Amino acid sequence: MSVVDCGPLTLEKAKLVAFAEGTVSIPTTVAIFQHPQHGVILWDTGCNHAVADPEEAEGYWGAGIRDAFGAQGFTRNHAIDRQLDFMGIQPKDVRYVIYSHLHLDHAGGMSYFPNAVHIMQRAELQYALFPDEWTRPVYVQNDFRDIHKLNVLLIDGDHDVFGDGTFRLIKAPGHAPGMQVLVVTLQHRGRFILGADVAHQRDQFEALIPMPWDWSCHAMTSSRKKIKQLERSGIPLYLCHEPSEFNALPQGGRYWD
Ligand SMILES: [Zn+2]
């Protein structure tokens, strides 16, 4: 497994952690697995390449959203198709794309992978296609424009992707209705959790502070406690948008196996 940053964002911390002060620069972690039997597997896809161009971003994400999420540092080379290209992987080589949830910084590369099986929670896709008014900005309908042409595997609840315990999805709703985290077991590295947006920052996770965009604070708190218990039992947890946790993972062509 190797990771890349497919969505550097610089924004007021209060947009991530209720009532926090100051500004933060965060990565958006996308994980790439080269599996001996199952081929290339992606965990999330980052932001769409349209966001690299200020004018295109207005049309693709919607007016003012690029500025609101501080995506000015996102360049064409940050998009997952380019990052894979740098690693010698073509879009057609990607066999599985697993989504933690379908927000704009996680589902932006969906249309790059027509040959893959796209795995997501049913509750997440249903909500993403018809979100509440107030969550509409984070569900970009342009990201889902190919959804009816793709091979989509909808799952309900926890799921063992290959039936061998190596890729286990645990439903963790709250930030989004169908958010899930991935518990991976690698042969040498052992088990760890890619925690997606179960919290955006480590201090937030520890103190169980909501994010203003959390779909349900109530569900989020119980999901956080569930994942906290897994971490407490000894499984390392890596949050998608926490810089120090992204930096602790092998990046851009370095691998854990
Ligand atoms: Zn996110």
Write structural notes for this entry.
It is a single chain. The protein is α/β, with parallel strands linked by helices and 257 residues long. It has one domain (2-247): Metallo-beta-lactamase, Chain A (4-Layer Sandwich). Helix content is 21%, strand content 23%. The chain has seven helices and 13 strands. The longest helix is centred in the last third of the chain and has 16 residues, at 217-232. It is globular. The structure holds zinc ion. Zinc ion binds next to loops. Residues 103, 105-106, 197, 240-241 line the site of zinc ion.
Q: What's the Cα radius of gyration?
A: 17 Å
CATH class: Alpha Beta
Q: Structural class from helices and strands?
A: alpha/beta
Individual helix count: 7
- The number of distinct β-strands equals 13
As for the number of domains, it is 1
Order of helices and strands: EEEEEHHHEEHEEEEEHHEH
Shape descriptor: globular
In terms of DSSP E residues, the strand content is 15-25%
User: What name is given to the CATH topology?
Assistant: Metallo-beta-lactamase, Chain A
Q: State the share of residues found in helices, binned by percent.
A: 10-25%
Low-confidence stretches: none
Cofactor: Zn(2+)
InterPro entries: MBL_superfamily_lactonases (IPR051013), Metallo-B-lactamas (IPR001279), RibonucZ/Hydroxyglut_hydro (IPR036866)
Protein name: N-acyl homoserine lactonase family protein
Keywords: Hydrolase, Metal-binding, Zinc
